[in-house]
Structures are given as C-alpha cells and as structure tokens.
Write a structure and sequence with these properties.
The complex is a heterodimer. Chain A is mainly β. In chain A, 0% of the residues lie in helices and 52% in strands. In chain A, the strands form two sheets. In chain A, strands 2, 4, 5, 9, 10 and 11 form a six-stranded mixed β-sheet that branches. In chain A, strands 1-3-8-7-6 form a five-stranded antiparallel β-sheet, with no helix packed on it. In chain A, a hairpin with a 6-residue loop joins strand 4 and strand 5 (45-50). In chain A, 36% of the residues are buried. Chain B is an all-beta fold. The N and C termini of chain B lie far apart (29 Å). In chain B, the strands form two sheets. In chain B, strands 2, 4, 5, 6, 9, 10 and 11 form a seven-stranded mixed β-sheet that branches. In chain B, strands 1-3-8-7 form a four-stranded antiparallel β-sheet, with no helix packed on it. Chain B contains no helices and eleven strands. Classes of the chains: A mainly beta, B mainly beta. The A-B interface holds A 4, 6, 8, 31-34, 42-46, 49, 87, 89, 91, 94-105 and B 2, 31, 35, 40-45, 48, 50, 55-56, 91, 95, 97, 101-108, 110-113.
Chain lengths: 112, 119
C-alpha cells in the first residue's frame, strides 16, 4: 500500500462547478499535510497547508480527518486556470525537518 | 522562472552512459532535495541533504546513482550507467530550515527540473 494515495482522475468539470478531491495516508502518526499544485510540464508549488481545524483560502478549502486518515481539497466556482494536477503531500514525521511524501496527484480539467 | 536553478533542462542519452544533473538552491536554504518524477506520477524522494550531510537516501539506487553537496550549497546528482527506466523528470527542491528550531512549513521550492530521456 502506498503511503499517500490519490485518485489520478482526470476530473473533467465545467467552469463554475464545485469539485472535491480526497487523499488517504497510511501513517497514522503523520504530522503535517499539504496540497501542492503542478501545472503541465512545470514544477510543483505549494497551494495550501492543511490544519486540523481546516483551512480556507478564497475558493479553496482543505480539510483533515485524522480518524479516517484522509485530507480533502474543495474548489468552488472552478476557473479554467484551475486546470492542473493537485498533489497531496504528507510529512510522516514530527519534529524538525521536512520529510515530505507526495501522492501520485489528481488531474483536474476545467472546461468552458 | 523558478529561483532554484537546475541544469540541464533536457538530456537525451543512450543506456549505459553517464549523466549528471546540477542544482543551485535558493540562497540560505540549508535543506536540499532530489526528487524523481515519472510521467503521470508524483515526485519520489531520492535524497535529502541538510547542509552537506545526507539526511535520507533510502530510496536512492546506490548501485548507479550518487549525489553530493560538498560545500553545502549546490548539488550534483549522477547516474552511471543510465538505464531505460531512468527516463523521468529529476526535480531539485530546497527549503528553509532555521538552525536551532523546528521547521515544518512544508514549503519546498522546486526548480524547473531536468528531463532525462534514455534511449
């Protein structure tokens, strides 16, 4: 079983739609969680952190469910520019340092 | 344009040849990572440095891959000999790790990557 698992998609949605992705992680002791965005043939970039209390940034909302070991990303009012691959990232270790494990990514395609 | 510099951007080589990638992280970033990303998959960590020391190289195929960061600044990843299955994007990333205090921001700054094709 992979440490971080995502549905690869693609998710094809029309502009203005709401779309949600889930990601599951295997290490129950994981400490921190993130969503990265990767445009086609570009490098990944941090989209947002995922806090225990949830995190909202404009049209994007991230949630953490420790009991079920999954995190989610909700995108409201999808834009064409949201088309990208969304990578779920988990830090399985607490304490100092970043030891990040990436999921395989979920591809989103927003269409006019 | 990414602040983490990588070269070359593209490399085509034949199997059994040697290949090397170079990375210059953001100034002041003590932690440097090399990831490999196969098309359609997420990045997989190959090696992590803290200054000049290796923190994690458990996923580095040491029979053919080597990585160094001699002065704790720029880094080189080498493959010798290259195999067909090594075709991938090799991403370098860096993060700020303040000494003496825990850092867990999760923000890695990636370079644009070096795309390797092995024929």
């Amino acid at each position: 079983r992979k440490e971080v698992e995502q549905d690869p998609g693609p998710f094809n949605v029309p502009e203005g739609a709401t779309v949600a992705f889930n990601c599951t992680y295997s290490n129950s002791a994981s400490q921190s969680f993130f969503w990265y965005r990767q445009d086609c043939r570009k490098e990944p970039k941090l989209l947002m952190s995922v806090y225990s209390s949830g995190n909202e940034d404009g049209r994007f909302t991230a949630q953490l469910n420790r009991a079920s070991q999954y995190i989610s990303l909700l995108i409201r009012d999808s834009k064409l520019s949201d088309s990208a691959t969304y990578l779920c990232v988990v830090n399985p270790f607490g304490g100092a340092g970043n030891m990040l494990t990436f999921g395989g990514g979920t591809r989103l395609m927003v269409k006019p | 344009e990414a602040e983490v510099a990588q070269s070359p951007r593209y490399k085509i080589t034949e199997k059994s040849q040697a290949v090397a990638f170079w990375c210059d992280p953001i100034s002041g970033h003590a932690t440097l990572y090399w990831y490999r990303q196969i098309l359609g998959q997420g990045p997989e960590l190959l090696v992590q440095f803290q200054d000049e020391s290796v923190v994690d190289d458990s996923q580095l195929p040491k029979d053919r891959f080597s990585a160094e960061r001699l002065k704790g600044v720029d880094s080189t990843l080498k493959i010798q000999p290259a195999e067909l299955g090594d075709s991938a994007m090799y991403l370098c990333a860096s993060s700020l790790f303040p000494s003496g205090r825990e850092a867990n921001t999760g923000e890695l700054f990636f370079g644009e990557g070096s795309r390797l094709t092995v024929l």
